Amino acid sequence: MTLYIAPIVEGQTEAGCVERLLHRVWTELLGGIERLQVLPPSRGKRDALLHPNRADLATKIEEAHARLNRRLYRDPSGRGLLLLLLDAERDCPAELAPHLLVAAKQARADADIVCVLAKRMTENWIAAGSSTLD
Fold first, then answer.
1. Is 114 helix (H, G, I), strand (E, B) or coil?
2. Is the dihedral angle over the CA atoms 67, 14, 115, 43 positive or is it negative?
3. Residue-wise pLDDT tens digits, 78-87
4. Considering the entire predicted model, what is its pTM?
């Protein structure tokens, strides 16, 4: 069985590095034995995704969900997951993440969605392990 992940990220750096990061977490930290396939990320601007009066988050959730469904249609035995991966910046990740997850679930209640927030700049996660990403 294959686990398909459809990430929603901010910025160019996360979009370019999220696949390698997820593969490393999957194999080295989680010991995942299933095949992992990371779909091309949906990119948005952090402030727009977090803004309560804008539909950017819901739009990106729908976009990622449609991409995931197209893949799962071709692989009915696969599993799918939407991953919201953003920077918390000055916000507290422990407070912001539950609010984002609620907003994401309102956009797509039937989807498996997880929300992961870096305190500051997700790129730092990638830079910290850059020597091992070759």
1. strand
2. negative
3. 999 999 988 8
4. 0.84
12: its two tokens: 């160019």
For 63, which DSSP code?
H
Give the C-alpha separation, 91 to 118, whole Å.
10
Report H helices in 51-108. 56-74, 93-107
- Whether 6 and 37 have beta carbons less than 8 Å apart is answered as no
How far apart CA 54 and CA 64 sit, in angstroms, is: 17
Asked whether 1 and 78 are in contact (CB, 8 A), the reply is yes
Polymer length in residues for the chain: 134
Which stretches of the chain are DSSP H helices?
Answer: 11-24, 46-50, 56-74, 93-107, 123-128
Kindly tell me the burial class for residue 81, based on how many C-beta atoms sit within 10 Å of its own C-beta (0-12, 13-18, 19 or more).
middle
Is the Cβ–Cβ distance between 108 and 61 less than 8 Å?
yes
